[in-house]
Design goal:
By secondary structure, the protein is an alpha+beta fold. It is built from twelve helices and 16 strands. The strands form three sheets. The chain has a nine-stranded mixed β-sheet. The protein has a four-stranded antiparallel β-sheet with strand order 10-15-12-13, with no helix packed on it.
């Protein structure tokens, strides 16, 4: 066997030929015959093939896009098992929302509260009376106080159509749809405060006029009943929702941010047990506080939090908000609905049609958040919110790093032995969304590789599942580095 180098431009290539001896009288004659290598497809490779076979099979393979490989091991999954095969009756499609009523400060700092909120089986929890039990001064976040503190502060405004919370009609008012579009503009806290106040006064005036008209009308039982058909789009009010108001400036908003230090450690904006405190830089609205100023009908469309992190939301009041929530387990089904209705699940604006979810056997939690109530949105929970009154809300994200209670409360651990470890669940979902964002070409706001290394370097992990996950992920990253470089 001889190897002859072909003369061509570019890197040297080899052509394998075989010399075959043929009889030709007294002379030795050879015929050159090209050797055709046995073709091996990548799909046919098994663990029994040698390295040469692997190299030969992958030599001409084409990779679409950049190199991607999931570093999550299915064997390490800590997700709760949810039976989706059983057809649920209608009453179970509207399960009761886990609600905790606090009577004292001691209740708020109970390890049972921590474990209940972060239990992967509970997608969302509303904590009633938290502000009262901790004596939180919610007046610091009232519209009046905000105007006095920084009236010229920027407010992002979303112009929306006011609709009932369980409906989402198209522009013609003939059918319900998933897309929930709104236009964006900007104003100041002072100007939005004027709009919020005038909206309230207009509502009072309309209510008074309506009462006057009713008192003037004669009693009749033969009148035409109200129509139950789709609403007339001409009658819809256009409203403005003040959103994403940044309260990260520690000097400007010092009284407000100090007040939030009264919260239990696992709910605070910053703590050593919060994964987002180990990012190393500010992520507005995630490891900082954001404020929302609302009038009735203001909508926060359906979404999961950035990188599936947990979220804390407090209603300042004076009005209420209505919430809808679905367990993380069903997010792919909801994403498929978005695809069918032509709206991007990750970056688009959508409002689920409840009947679509019920028909797909998806339970929907639905509840009212009153002033002083704190809503804990667990990792990966799909949710959407509508204001039913005039109110302000504050919110931020957290990433629980441990399921253990604070020092001094460890004696209660025996009570908690039946709970799942929440930290590994949060970490797993954050990594899953980080990798899914890469597939969908969506930038992850949380740099999960960087966070993983920071946590591994600076935090003593008590959760055995979380320890294994972080160690495995960092090790896989080290192994992957030469491939990315080459």
């Amino acid at each position: 066997m001889l190897k002859l180098r072909s003369l061509s431009e570019g890197p040297p290539k080899e052509l394998k030929i075989r010399l075959i001896k043929v009889p030709s009288g007294d002379k030795e004659t050879f015929i050159a015959s090209e050797v055709e290598e046995r073709r091996l497809r990548m799909a046919d490779l098994t663990i029994s093939h040698c390295a040469a076979d692997v190299m030969r099979a992958s030599k001409n393979a084409k990779v679409k896009g950049k190199f991607r490989e999931s570093l999550l091991s299915p064997a390490q999954s800590v997700k709760p098992k949810i039976n989706t095969e059983e057809k649920l009756p209608r009453e179970k499609l509207n399960p009761p929302t886990p609600s905790i009523y606090l009577e004292s400060k001691r209740d708020a700092f109970s390890p049972v509260l921590l474990q209940f909120c972060t239990d992967p089986r509970n997608p969302i929890t509303v904590i009633r009376g938290l502000a009262g039990s901790l004596r939180l001064n919610l007046g610091l976040f009232s519209t009046k106080t905000l105007v006095e503190a920084s009236g010229e502060h920027t407010v992002e405004v979303r112009t929306q159509v006011q609709q009932p919370s369980d409906e989402n009609w198209d522009l013609t008012g003939t059918r319900q749809i998933w897309p929930c579009e709104s236009s964006r503009s900007h104003t100041t806290i002072a100007k939005y405060a004027q709009y919020q106040a005038s909206s309230f006064q207009e509502s009072l005036q309309e209510e008074k006029e309506s009462e006057d008209e009713e008192s003037e009308e004669p009693d009749s039982t033969t009148g035409t009943p109200p129509s139950s058909s789709a609403p007339d789009p001409k009658n819809h009010h256009i409203i403005k929702f003040g959103t994403n108001i940044d309260l990260s400036d520690a000097k400007r908003w010092k009284p407000q941010l100090q007040e939030l230090l009264k919260l239990p450690a696992f709910m605070r904006v910053t703590s050593t047990g919060n994964m987002l405190s180990h990012v190393g830089h500010t992520i507005l609205g995630m490891n900082t506080v954001q404020l929302y100023m609302k009038v009735p009908g203001s909508r926060t469309p359906g979404h999961q939090e950035n990188n599936n992190f947990c979220s804390v939301n407090i209603n300042i009041g004076p009005g209420d908000c209505e919430w809808f929530a679905v367990h993380e387990h069903y997010w792919e089904t909801i994403s498929a609905f978005c695809d069918r209705h032509g709206v991007d699940y990750l970056t688009g604006s959508w409002w689920p049609i409840l009947d679509d979810l019920y028909a797909s056997n998806i339970p929907v939690y639905r509840f009212v958040q009153r002033p002083g109530d704190l809503v804990w949105i667990n990792a990966g929970t799909v949710h959407w919110v509508q204001a039913t009154g005039w109110c302000n809300n504050i919110a931020w994200n957290v990433g629980p790093l441990t399921g253990l209670p604070e020092e001094g409360a460890r004696g209660c651990l025996k009570i908690l032995s039946d709970f799942l470890w929440p930290a590994a669940y949060q970490y797993q979902l954050a990594l899953e969304r980080y990798e899914w964002n890469e597939v969908k070409n969506v930038k992850s706001i949380v740099p999960m590789i960087h966070v993983s290394w920071n946590v591994a370097r600076t935090v003593k992990i008590s959760d055995p599942d979380l320890f294994k996950m972080i160690k495995s992920y960092c090790a896989e990253e080290v192994d992957k580095t030469p491939i990315l470089i080459s």
